[in-house]
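Ticket closed. Logging final result for 3-oxoacyl-(Acyl-carrier-protein) reductase.
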Amino acid sequence: MEKKVFLITGGSRGLGKKVVERLALNKEHMICFTYLNSQDAALQLARETGAFSLQCNQQNGDEVQDTVRKISSTFGKIDVLINNACPAFTPTDFLNSDSDHFKSLLDIHVMGAYFFSRETSPLMRDRHSGKIINILSSYVFNLPPKKIAHYITAKYALMGLSKALAVELIPYGITVNMISPGLMATDLSKYLPRKYLEVYSANHPMGRMASTDDAADILEFLISDQADFLNGINIPVNGGETF
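Final structure:
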């Protein structure tokens, strides 16, 4: 089996951490992940898994370029990019929203994915092989909750970018797909009211929130050779919330 190089953005916690841990079980592959502020958690994860951690502010195109260059100069390629980075945020009434905070979420989700996709795509194009997977949210399929207009807008914008790249990059052997997990027990959900989480789980078809393992299972499939003929799809990982 050819040794592959994976890059996961926002890999120090939540779903990103779970994916790093899963992929690191295969010692044939090299796992790289980025983080912004969680240095202690990132270094611990790197020690435990043997993964390569890099601090990067993905709102800054120059930092992203430098990060990708470090990986490519060390390992010679990047086979799979998983755009996962998602900062914790506070639910806010739209009428009381702050434009800087709103723009920051857009920059991290959309511009961050744009920068990383732009820098890794030429490496994939040169080998006529590569996969980009973007993490969305099941809210793009159904009615979103109130007070997270910034988050919803960012995820819809990322979905648009994903579909555009799926069309534009496939001639170079690069597929672009998405997964949309349901609400997961991560740092993000801690900012939601407990009552909302209780009602959500009680009304869910499976009676629970999604887990990071649920999402990681689908990601492992999408990065496998069995998913080579999939392109431009968005897989809901939400236990039947939407059909």
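The first helix runs from residue 14 to 23. No further action required.
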